[in-house]
Amino acid sequence: MGTTTAMLRIVRDLLKHDTRFRIAFVFLLAVLLLTALTVVSPYDPSRTFKVPADMPPSLQHPFGTNSRGQDMFWWMAFALRNSLLLGLLTAAVSRVIAILVGLTAGYRGGFIDRALMSVNDSFVVMPVLPVLILLSFLLRGQMTIPLLALILGLFGWPWDARLIRAQVLSLKERSFTRTAVYSGNASLHISLNEHLPFVLPVVFATTIANMLWSIGMEVTLSVLGLSNVSLPTIGTAIFWANQHQALVAGIWWWLAAPIVCAIVLFLGLYLLFSSVNEYIDPRTRLRLMGG
Amino acid sequence: MALLSVENLRAYYRTEIYGISRTVRAVDGVSFELASNEIYGVAGESSCGKTTLIKVISGTIKPPLKVEAGQVRYQFGLYDVDMLHIEQDELRRNVRWKEISYVMQGSMSVLNPVRRVVTTFEDIVDTHQIISDRKMFLEQMREHVNKLGLPPEVLNLYPHQLSGGMRQRVAIALATVFHPRLIIADEPTTALDVVVQRGVLQMLKGIQAESGNTVLLVTHDLAVHANVADRVAIMYAGRIVEEASTEIIFNAPSHPYTQHLIRSLPMIGDRSSKAGLGGAPPNLANPPNGCRFHPRCPHAMDVCRTEVPEMIMLEGGHRVACHLIKGAAR
Amino acid sequence: MSANSGKLLDVQHATVVFHIGSLIGGTRLVAVNDVSFSLESARPEIYTLAGESGSGKTTLSSLILHDLNPTEGKILFEGRDVTQIRKRNEVMDFMKKVQPVFQNPFETFNPLRRVEEYLYDTAVNFGMAANRQDAAPVVDETLRQVGLSLEEVSKRYPHELSGGQIQRVSVARALIPHPRLILADEPVSMVDASLRMEIVNVFRKLRDEQKVSVLYITHDLATAYYISDRISIMLRGFIVESGPVEDVLDRPLHPYTRLLKESVPEPAPQERGLWAKHIELGTTEVKEYGRVGCKFAGRCPQVMDICRKADPPDVEADGRTVKCYLYTEGARQRPEAPAEPLD
Amino acid sequence: MRKFVLGYLLPRIAQWAMVIFIGVTVTFIIPRLSPNDPVERQISQMMGTGARIDPEAVEHMRVALTEMYGLKGSGWQQYVAFWGRLLRGDLGPSLSTFPTPVTSLIANAMPWTLGLLLTSVLISWVLGNVLGAFASYYPNSRFIGVIDVLSQAVRPIPYYVMALVMLIMFAYVIKVFPFSGAYPPGTRVQLTPQFMLTVIKHSALPALSLVTLGMGGWFLGMKSLCSNIISEDYVVYAETAGLRENKILFNYVMRNALLPQITGLGLQLGSIFSGALIMEVVFGYPGMGMLTLQAVLGNDYSLIMGIAIFSIVGVATSVLILDLIYPLFDPRVRHQ
């Protein structure tokens, strides 16, 4: 129970004082609403020509309809749901690796730290897109959301592992860690009780950053036709719009819908990240307690 | 005429985050005067407001610090100027470094890490007087640094190549490049070893004795004041509680806080047991009213808890703010 | 294994060499150089390791706390080699007997955790109490030994206490498992002068009443004189003079100890004479590490040729050991304990 | 100097070699992991075109393709052979434009990407840093405030979506720039000023969007860096000494904040390069991006492999160059 009341208090404080959080709150609420609506969607996104094609936005079809006879509003609902799902899955996969690598390198130190970090820095420096293009080119056709999430997750951890390691290193040097050791606590207890409140903000911030990165990467891969184009996502929406030369044909709403949804989703996540990140930063909490 | 006089200065830190606003009353009614040709020491413990006092006097006032009331008057040639209200650019052009210079808290990172020492000298000198002949300027700097006992090749080194003691002596050389009439030294030797500290303080004393200017020395280390300062002011929780010549402060202090401080100083050769002082310095966000020392004062009376003691002038320039002492009001 | 040799702590020729710089091209830095001293189990005492920054005193303390292994030499605690302590129960047993007190009060405890948590952790983990409830009286009792009470400290965060109060809680935490040795690394240097005496008096009480020995590491000779029984003066990794504190500091023999004592400003304006005598500061201290022979030769007013050739031996003189050629048999003149100050 | 070489240069070169080693190994392993074998794919695609090919020719083709793909022998032998070919600069022929070698295709695409990338990265890095420093030193100037809000708004949006928005805005709505290609089809590529002019006119849009996207990141990074540096002792000291504001801003605040920004640039070159690829796809700019699109559409497996390896080596080398330049800016590294 304690954590839920703490969460509500954070939301209340942020809503009162931080405009970034207010915008994020509205945007993400809209996205989640749309995602929830997919349950009651009258149309099956994989079926085409269920509605008259190329209708501009109207009350009946808020986002208009596309040349494949699909209602863009419901199609984008499924697209947002799948993109969000992909983001969460990738973030989960890459968190596991990032925390594992970050904590081991940070805590063990010495040779293991140097070895892990030189491998890690190589992955950070490496241009990921060409490699992903190669990989998804070979897996074309069998690409599903979980598989793409796994692939993106395998390439999304090095930057975050660096940040987590830096945080752990700084905590190791602080003398309250030694006080905890000499109080007879085991290292697991120390990580959970002493270091977690400092590591958590970094993990939270990198999770959201990773979601942004992975959904963005999916858009790029889908636009090149390298992901499963029958599955509605923000990327495949743009892919089909390009495929049918939507811009040239003047069906601007076909392209406007995914672009607007993408901007709302990305801005919402980013503003959530920057406002909450500032709030849960240990330094702010200390100043709040009058430290 | 006093070189610098601070009258009833109040400076607070106002912060407000997520709806919680706090006001820390760091300096709360401080008045004192600096004469020329003297070393005036300001002693006080952590959170007594001495660093804030220095920030206000040296004009580096940035939010959340704000001056609430009071004046800082500097005797500038014939007329005296209220430093808090003169226009920034004028302050920068004629007062900064030419009249008042500054040796910073001994945190050693006073020099720009990516510039050679001589370039920092050039930056400061060039701001106040155009360097027409660079060769002559370099010669003057080498001579200035040499006179202070520093090897001239220090000039073309980078700060990270100098030891702590060297960096602090370079900072003093920088502060004296225009032979200012007032040097403010904020904890100049806190981070130094005792032998290097002795050398740096002797250098500072030598400069003051030779040029007859005024040094405002701020440090928590009373033993340093005993060996360097001519007069000492003791600060507690944002106010000056006692001010007198060094001899009086160490041999015949009147304020209970000063008495306790002097008594509790360990000295080689004296193993007699010394008492600690109970409690802790007050939190300046909501300080106790009346005399702010009353919660820890062994002689606290009722009046101490309600009324702020007036600064009373005893003989020989000895001022003290304590209800125990009755004398002519300031 | 001389378990009952009566020595609580026995440091035998401890040496620590650091390799700074990159893997291949780095330089060798001898932080601790052939240091030996010991504390008796029977006689609890406060033993001071004094020296300036870079003298190796902190490296020596991390050797004893087994955070670092010596390159050469041995550290025996109660007759047992500290470096062999590896298994969890052995480490816990060692930590029960040797506890540290740190320098910076505001870093000793996690700013986001209540201070009392550490007291309960220590009490429960070292078996002083079955659980947190039973631990309350134990914690309260130890806090009273340092002049505080549980009621005064409970529910408080570190920023709600003064530096002096936090250091006393830190000592109390170290006291809970009834240690034999407390290792205090600059415990009072960051505490206000007015509160310093309280903590220093606590150490005195520990030695006299709790029979706990304290290894006091500091650069502040004045507090060292006030509370310690014996003292070792360290310079660049060597112990240059060690013995009873009143002998070493009242009548220093080694020129470096004399210089140190003179440089400590006396809190008495009329005593200015000695401190005010002008001294020449060396240009860069780093050169002193690599120097052959006595590390102080560069600045010593009584330096002789031999001082620059080889490390001076340890000589017994006037009740203490001093590492200086001035006092060896063959030295030219053999000043007893020069009364007049350094020329 | 010896300590500098051993202490700083050697580890950096080792890191460069490590990046290339890991990059190449990853690109080698990936195809081997994938379920369907590229040779079969190629053959089935060829069969799919309906042309009657007798089985023997197919068998012959399979052996040739396996040989060409370097799939002969055990995994280890393939790996060694792979490195052998790589070091000789032979990435095999491109399948979609058989038999032109992959390296020549990349050779004439790379300069375009380099040109676009270098100019836009430099402009966005310098602009972002200067404006970021101003934003922290003069927090309440309106002009910088607008840029601050814009940067935060642009920062999270992925390259492709942003590029699309700019394409629509500039090429359709305001019709200022031509919407694709670095030069209109059919013009001969020669170094006359007139040709250069058209190239600049055509590459304006991709460059502009790369700059605006990149600048936001550097702006926000510099602003937070400088707001920490402003409270450093040497800046407060310089202000107390009465130095002029722009001297403090440029020689004290910015000069020190640039160091982490240079390292930051090194670390982000990989993602900036990927961004440039996307930009080229959107704007039809004839660099590595378009080559990648052409390879994907033409199912050209070895060209994609070649592009992946080239990108890795290219980025790793430019990061090494940046690391070698860094000591010129930071005396603490130059003078140990």
Summarize this structure briefly.
The complex is a heterotetramer of chains A (291), B (330), C (343) and D (336). With 330 residues, chain B is an alpha/beta fold.
How would you sum up this structure, described in words?
The complex is a heterotetramer of chains A (291), B (330), C (343) and D (336). Helix content of chain A is 76%, strand content 0%. Chain A has helices spanning 2-17, 19-37, 72-108, 110-125, 128-138, 145-155, 158-173, 175-182, 187-223, 234-243, 246-249, 252-280, 282-288. Chain A is mainly alpha-helical and 291 residues long. Chain B has 330 residues and is an alpha/beta fold. Chain B has one domain: P-loop containing nucleotide triphosphate hydrolases (Rossmann fold), CATH 3.40.50. In chain B, 30% of the residues lie in helices and 25% in strands. Chain B contains 10 helices and 12 strands. Chain B has helices at residues 50-57, 88-95, 117-128, 134-147, 164-175, 194-211, 222-228, 246-251, 256-263, 302-306; strands at 4-17, 20-34, 39-44, 65-76, 79-82, 100-103, 182-186, 214-218, 231-236, 239-245, 312-313, 319-320. Chain B has an 8-stranded mixed sheet with strand order 6-7-8-3-9-10-12-11, sandwiched between helices. In chain B, strands 2-1-4-5 form a 4-stranded antiparallel sheet. In chain B, helix 6 (194-211) links the parallel strand 7 (182-186) and strand 8. Chain B is globular. By secondary structure, chain C is of the alpha/beta class. Chain C has a single domain, classed as P-loop containing nucleotide triphosphate hydrolases (Rossmann fold), CATH 3.40.50.300. Chain C is 33% helix and 23% strand. Chain C has helices at residues 57-64, 88-97, 105-108, 115-125, 132-145, 150-153, 163-175, 193-210, 221-227, 245-250, 255-263, 272-276, 287-290; strands at residues 7-20, 27-40, 46-51, 72-77, 80-81, 98-101, 181-185, 213-218, 230-235, 238-244, 314-317, 320-323. Chain C has an 8-stranded mixed sheet with strand order 6-7-8-3-9-10-12-11, with helices on both faces. In chain C, strands 2-1-4-5 form a 4-stranded antiparallel sheet, with helices on one face. The longest helix of chain C is centred in the middle third of the chain and has 18 residues, at 193-210. Chain C is globular. Chain C starts with 6 loop residues before the first strand and ends in a 20-residue tail after the last strand. In chain D, helix 5 (102-137) crosses helix 8 and helix 5 crosses helix 11. The radius of gyration of chain D is 25 Å and the shape is globular. At the B-C interface, helix 5, helix 6, helix 7, helix 8 and helix 9 of B face helix 7, helix 8, helix 9, helix 10 and helix 11 of C.
